[in-house]
Amino acid sequence: MNKNIIVKKNKKENEIEIIFQNFKQNLNFKQNAIFTIDKKGIILSWNNGATNLMGYSSKEVLGKNFLKFYISKKNTPTFKLNHVKQLGENAKETNLIRKNESVFLANVLLFPIKNDNKVTGYTHVIYDVSYIKDNEIALKKCTAELKKIKKTLEIKNAKDEALLESIGEGIVATDNKGKMILINSVALTMFGLTANTSYGKLFTKVFCAYDEKGVKIPSNDLTVPDVIKTGKKVLHSRFYYGIVGKNNFPVAATSTPVILSGKRIGTITIFRNIKKEVEIDNIKSEFVSIVSHQLRTPLTAIKLLTELVLDNMYSGMSHENEETILNIQQSNEKMIHLVNSLLKMSQMETGKLKIKPTYNKIYEFIVSIADDATALAKSKNITLLLPKNQQDSMSVYIDKELFRQVFLNLILNAIEYSKKGSKIWIGCTSESDGSCIVSIKDEGIGIPKDKNEKIFDRFFRATNAVNYKPAGTGLGLYVCRLIVEKHGGQIWVTSDEKKGSTFYVSIPPKNNITHLN
Amino acid sequence: MKKHILLIEDEEFIAKVYKHFFIKENFTVDSAKNSIIAKKMLKANTPNIIVLDLMLPGESGFKILEKLKAEKKTKHIPVIIISNISLASDIEKCKNLGAIEYIIKSNFSMREVIDKVHKHIL
Asked: Which domains does chain B have, with CATH numbers?
């Protein structure tokens, strides 16, 4: 009987083995257990795979009940013969326990063994699916993680988009070749673009720019190609940008490189429409020029009428009255000077005053200005010491008229705030970077230490200067600063109260003059 | 014979002083406060130089200058602009229209104005 069963079983086992080989090949299992049990669950045969998988040798399990492999009886496969019509139909996933008490997830298949159409036992196939499960879990974890990242990115993206859209400025991003990859809605509306027709196109093919005179800027000099070329932030403070073939308007455009892990990956350009600001600037300068005209008219009348009075002096005027008239004249001249300074200041600030730079030999230039101040210096017995004669003095690229005003103002100030019989040194040196520094040193009243910076602010006057000369306007040095800065230069002072001051003006070499536009 | 100046200036005080000093300098002077009077004076007595303000009631100094330079009889007469407008664009405009000199009134003494007249008078 026993022998019979084994024979039958072996036959069946062969069949199963073939099918199982397919499984094995398909699923590439490393460990598969195959064993047979009788109807009561007593183990009758045990293969090597079973030993490998479960950890028991055949000696240890033959004749024992197979249920010891199951963690709970709930999980035990039921042997309902009627339901087992086909092989593998009752495959079940369950946790099994090894000899070493480790638990693993297994797929369990039961195949009935029939003898004369009666079920005599079962072939039990177990294969380890824990690693599939592990993979599955890992995969699920991974998917969850990805979903989380996706969501975070979506939120971040939405935030970025909301941020880009809520910004009042137009934003255009390009890749490293200048092709546009993002344009926010403000920029689209500002320039009348559509996203579909603009994305992927070169910035320089879509945008064009003009300077204030309406001269077209070469496309290579637009902000984006400039950033790509230099890798540095580029600012166009007052150019007229537009779409090729459409209207343009004044904008402040700033392009910055986008750096990722030390590598430039593209550019971001911010456009601010400054049409209103330009309009306001124009109104402001118009206002100032009208007001200054209105102010000048009565001042001119006073100027000319006092001249007339002085001319009529022979008609019998006391010396006292003559002096009074002269005082009126002096005050009036100061008022005229103030109006002129205000006007110049306004024109400077609004960019209305165009500087017209030319090349000038600095030594000759300084000397000619000092000449103009000689008379005043002599009247106070002040010695003006000029820089050493330079055979080949350096050329500076400046607006001659405006710089004459700067140096004359500084020299006249030096004379004004110096005591009789003192000295004034005028120097000029060329620096290694190609710039030129002019200095004017006096032995005058000096400037309080904490006011050294402030004296270049508009309407600022140091208290000791007010006491010394009450009538100054507080605009002279401010206008000097505007002129110097307009040329890309700097003006500063070193001073000790009661010991004297040295004023410095630096003039950059031509190619460093960035503010000429 | 004395040289003749046509002064076109609406500001009474200023016209008075200009006239005083021009006469003192041995010129004869016609003084007009608008373009209509100026036209009559121009017909009656051709000046050797015209001293012209810009901000005038009625026809502006720009318009008068333009007409003077368009007219065959008057286009050779030198015109000195006297104005307190100091906009670069206006100065440029007058030079382009044919003005020989542009004087910002508040910044010039009478002596300097007379020197300019002497320099350009026919």
From this structure: 4-120 (3.40.50.2300)
